[in-house]
Amino acid sequence: MVTIVVNGVQREVQAPNDTPLLYVLRNDLELSGPQFGCGVAQCGACSVLLDGKEVRSCITPLSAVKEKEVTTLEGLPARWAKQKGLSTSEAANTLHPIQEAWIEEQTPLCGFCQNGMMIKATELIERVSSPSVAEIKAAFTTSGPSAHLCRCGSYTAIIEAVQRAATAMAKGRA
Ligand code: FES
Ligand code: FES
């Protein structure tokens, strides 16, 4: 039995230490945000935050997340609510500004890659409150083990959604 913390909740998992985190999240904890794309850290579809840093859960063994905080797409609203100090009832009706921006900009096409895109955007904006286009492009292309890939070509909409979310988050923090 391994104890991990996912989206602020302690979870007991019965799986070998070398099980990919992605399998644990999807199969054991029924969190369907992270997607299985390539399985070898080359697409970004499976991304989650590990202590606030984007990692590829398809190559992250369960043993690597003990005593660390895992945040999946499902946990972004609560993450934002906590950062903003919202009450439990307010938090229940709140989306993360990144999710709101993705809706406003109608960013997803097929949607398959968008989990990783929103996780990467969260990491970026928590680190750089008002990223330039160059910083956004760098975050999605050269900051990790590979670029975040979108077969549908939603890259322009992603940049616009990141900028919209950054503006909203800056206001929300004021
Ligand atoms: S499924 Fe993990 S990077 Fe592609
Ligand atoms: S929206 Fe289809 S792969 Fe990105």
Describe this structure in words.
This protein has 174 residues and is α+β, with helices and mostly antiparallel strands. It is 41% helix and 12% strand. The protein contains seven helices and five strands, in the order ββαβββαααααα. It has helices at residues 21-28, 76-84, 88-92, 97-104, 114-127, 133-141, 155-173, and strands at 2-6, 9-13, 47-50, 53-56, 69-71. It has a five-stranded mixed sheet with strand order 2-1-5-3-4, with helices on both faces. A hairpin with a 2-residue loop joins strand 1 (2-6) and strand 2 (9-13). The chain is globular. The structure holds FE2/S2 (inorganic) cluster (2 copies). One FE2/S2 (inorganic) cluster is lined by residues 108-114, 150-152, 154. The site of one FE2/S2 (inorganic) cluster has 12 residues, from loops.
Ions, cofactors and other ligands present here are: FE2/S2 (inorganic) cluster
Radius of gyration: 15 Å
Number of strands: 5
Helices, by number, come to 7
Task: Report the portion of residues in β strands.
Answer: 5-15%
Oligomeric state of shown chains? single chain
SSE diagram, text form:
Layout: E1 2-6, E2 9-13, H1 21-28, E3 47-50, E4 53-56, E5 69-71, H2 76-84, H3 88-92, H4 97-104, H5 114-127, H6 133-141, H7 155-173
Parallel strand pairs: 1-5
Antiparallel strand pairs: 1-2, 3-4, 3-5
Helix pairs in contact: 4-7
One FE2/S2 (inorganic) cluster is lined by residues 108-114, 150-152, 154.
